[in-house]
Amino acid sequence: AQTVTQSQPEMSVQEAETVTLSCTYDTSESDYYLFWYKQPPSRQMILVIRQEAYKQQNATENRFSVNFQKAAKSFSLKISDSQLGDAAMYFCAYTSNAGGTSYGKLTFGQGTILTVHP
Amino acid sequence: KAGVTQTPRYLIKTRGQQVTLSCSPISGHRSVSWYQQTPGQGLQFLFEYFSETQRNKGNFPGRFSGRQFSNSRSEMNVSTLELGDSALYLCASSPGLAYETQYFGPGTRLLVL
């Protein structure tokens, strides 16, 4: 079974600084997709960034970028120029393209609470 | 496009009752997935529906069931509620292929007394 592990229950960063959130996963699949979602206090899950495993290039979305290390099964999120609005719970998630028991199923890590200090 | 909507947003029930939650996906999306979020267990996959058929389900007891209508709207039902069913229930929609990004609704917070 696929598992996703976020080893940092909490992280903090000063406004305008950079922070990196860690995520590791375990899978025997070769065709899979990784995501970072953000859940602010409103509890609405918001997509931050997505990475296709077959792409070697790391995904970027404005101030958000990932470091995808496929061999190490590592998928970290870097937030640059942190803003107060970045404060939230961040979840790493995995899904595969295997069909069957993968349909519509995201496997989530336990989450990392990010605090941004002014 | 309008986002995923869920109703009701908050619900209080007592043990033994049943509850129905509703989810309307983004227009054009045919897949709806349901998740349960609790402090202890985190986010757990309940089931997924596509074109009115359940394609996948997680490890939850039979008290948890769902369905999808021809307009892709989905409902989930929990019968014989237990205290442990208190949770945030999230639904997410996607166009339908296994790897496509899921977009989440605001959730329904269920409290079982």
Main interface: chain pair and counts = A-B, 31 and 29 residues
Based on CA atoms alone, the radius of gyration of chain A comes out at 14 Å
Strand content of chain B: over 45%
Parts with pLDDT < 50 across at least 5 consecutive residues of chain B: none
Helix content of chain B: under 10%
Total count of helical runs of at least 4 residues of chain A: 0
Summarize the helices and strands and which ones pair or pack.
The complex is a heterodimer of chains A (118) and B (113).
Chain A: E1 3-5, E2 10-14, E3 19-21, E4 24-26, E5 32-39, E6 46-52, E7 60-61, E8 64-69, E9 74-79, E10 88-96, E11 107-108, E12 112-117
Parallel strand pairs in A: 2-12
Antiparallel strand pairs in A: 1-4, 3-9, 5-6, 5-10, 7-8, 8-9, 10-11, 10-12
Chain B: E1 5-7, E2 10-13, E3 19-24, E4 31-38, E5 42-50, E6 53-57, E7 64-68, E8 74-78, E9 87-94, E10 103-104, E11 108-112
Parallel strand pairs in B: 2-11
Antiparallel strand pairs in B: 1-3, 3-8, 4-5, 4-9, 5-6, 7-8, 9-10, 9-11
